[in-house]
Amino acid sequence: KRDIKWGRRASRASSASRFEPRRVDSAHRCCFPAHALRIHNWPFSLATMLRLLSRSPLAAAQARGVPRVFTARLSASREDEGVEQPRVAVGSFLDNFRTFFNRAAEQEKLNDSMLQRLSTCQAVVRFTFNVKMSDGIVRPITGYRAHHSYHRTPVKGGIRFSKDVNLNETMALASLMTFKCAVVDVPFGGAKGSIKVDPRSLTKHDLELITRGYTRELCKKSFMGPGVDVPAPDMGTNAQIMAWIKDTYMSYNPQDVNNIACVTGKPIEQGGVRGREEATGLGVFYSTREFMSYQDDMDRLGLTTGLKDKRIMIQGFGNVGYHAARWFASAGAKVVGVSDIDGAVYNDSGLDVSKLRSYMDENGGLRGFTGGTYSTEGSDLLEGDCDILIPAATENSITIANASRVKAKVIVEAANGPVTPEAESVLEKNGSVILPDILLNAGGVTVSYFEWLKNLAHVRFGRMNTRLTQTTHAALVKGLETKMGGIDNEFKTEFMQEQNELAIIRSGLEDTMINASREVRKIARDADVNLRTAAFMIAIRKIRKVVEQQGDFA
User: Fold this and answer.
1) How far apart, in whole angstroms, are the C-alpha atoms of residue 320 and residue 376?
2) What are the pLDDT digits (tens) for 79-134?
3) Is 402 exposed, middle or buried (0-12, 13-18, 19+ CB in 10 A)?
């Protein structure tokens, strides 16, 4: 009985259906809508209640004959400021995810039990907490956290700050994280969190209070911890916000020797790892470079192998878009177009990525940049003339409405869910290939895994062996020079390169992304499916094997 945290019914003044789903069974992490146990005339004793709480919310409700309106709410609800919405909107991110997943599930011939396990979140929490803002007004803040799968723990996923987030989107992103981790062999289950605020309109003080309030709620509900759930940055969040999360968690858990591993994406001084900020964009670069290296694939697309002189356009010039652009430019590609929230800028000769980023940081947007031609219509970039298009902004950027006008032969999904299923069919019919988000933007969670390992080991990468490696290499070079009368200076420089933490992280990320890309390409060719379906098939196989080996604990 003490494990049940009772929420309060919202005011009747707005709607009879407004409730806050804050009942959480802490032991089983099962979340119920606040009204689900308040229906009169149900013959529920306390013992019956506790038996139902030991099951999943959906199974428990169906077992007692709960009306379908409630079982639909338990399996997938869409809530916005406490008002119940239709179950799943047509074309929603969650709908799109399930469509992509089902295509792979059909190929893998999943049984009903495994299908339901992988297609629904195992735990979801929604809560509201009050924050006294800088203007003196106390405002209610809505937060979400979804855990998709506990086949591996802890679960892992970012936290996004946006006024447009909802529970439906959060569940979809948590589901995607599970499969993303499996594809790149990162031993986490999937999770996602979100807070319904516009971070650009908040002061730093208000942002800190909201972040700490959100973390406090997760701690109270046992929804966070180094072995439970490890958040990370996402849209609208950064390293500073992760530092506030870490500090708040440590205040509530001072006895946990590994408490610094409660969150990743932290500043270096707070236990972060070098290379985390660039990780997602760099992972996009590594996988794209690998896919562009196959002659037969490029022949079908009418392109040459490699990245040199390829024309690239990037939608979204935030952290992911900028670092992807920087690495593509360093490989000889031409970034001829970039868009962001205030418009787009073009230069057929190639944009100076570093100057553009500096200008954007100083001026808050792309307007006025003298190194290219500015346009207020940022969405037109998706239809621009280029070889490689990189949607690095938000989901559902390429839909059935604009897919037929996309000219790029290679679409690189740096964002989560930028291409809808209907748009994917149109693009493939027109001869384009899509490098899927489930693989391409997994660089972030890969390096977050490295940071988590660093925090658990309590020592930075390279500290124990960097000097020994350098000494050994120096002795080898000296011996070669003595025997051979000299060696190539370029080889000597590369061989003697310091193996510091950044070099080790980049090496691990490159190895991870290349191996995963090769595996996805092989399955796609063997099963005659597209790359996205192949990636999901690989993830399903790995997850199913883990689940079957673990068995069921009653």
Assistant:
1) 22
2) 444 444 444 333 678 888 889 998 998 898 888 888 888 888 999 999 999 999 99
3) middle
Q: Two tokens at 137?
A: 């007004």
Residue type (1 letter), 491: F
Closest alpha carbon to 193 in 245, 258, 115: 245
Are the beta carbons of 156 and 188 closer than 8 angstroms?
yes
| Concatenated DSSP letters of 112-148 | HHHHHHHHS-SEEEEEEEEEE-TTS-EEEEEEEEEE-
16, 110 contact by CB (below 8 A): no
Collapsed DSSP state (helix, strand, coil) of residue 340: strand
What confidence tens digit (pLDDT) does each residue in 454-509 have?
999 998 877 777 777 777 777 777 777 777 777 777 766 766 666 788 989 999 99
Query: What type of residue is 456?
Result: L
**Residue 492: Cβ within 10 Å count:** 15
d(CA 395, CA 192): 15
Q: How many Cβ atoms from other residues are within 10 Å of residue 246's Cβ? A: 25
Contact predicate 378/310, CB 8 Å = no
Largest CA distance in the chain: 94
- Vertex 183: Cα angle to 331 and 28 (nearest 5): 135
Q: Where are the alpha helices (DSSP H) in 17-147?
A: 46-53, 57-63, 68-75, 93-108, 112-119
CB 420 within 8 A of CB 528: no
Residue type, 148: H
Instruction: Say how far apart CA 379 and CA 392 lie, in whole Å.
Output: 12
Determine contact, residues 432/410, Cβ cutoff 8 Å: yes
Contact 214, 195 (CB under 8 A): yes
Active-site residue list: 192
Residue 221 phi/psi, 5-degree rounding, is: -100, 10
Bridge partner residues of 130 (DSSP): 140
Half-sphere exposure of 193 (CA within 13 A, CB side): 27
Q: What is the DSSP letter of 19?
A: B
**Are 165 and 144 a contacting pair, CB within 8 Å?**
yes
Phi, psi of 439 (to 5 degrees): -110, -50
Residue 421, token pair as written in the block: 């299923």
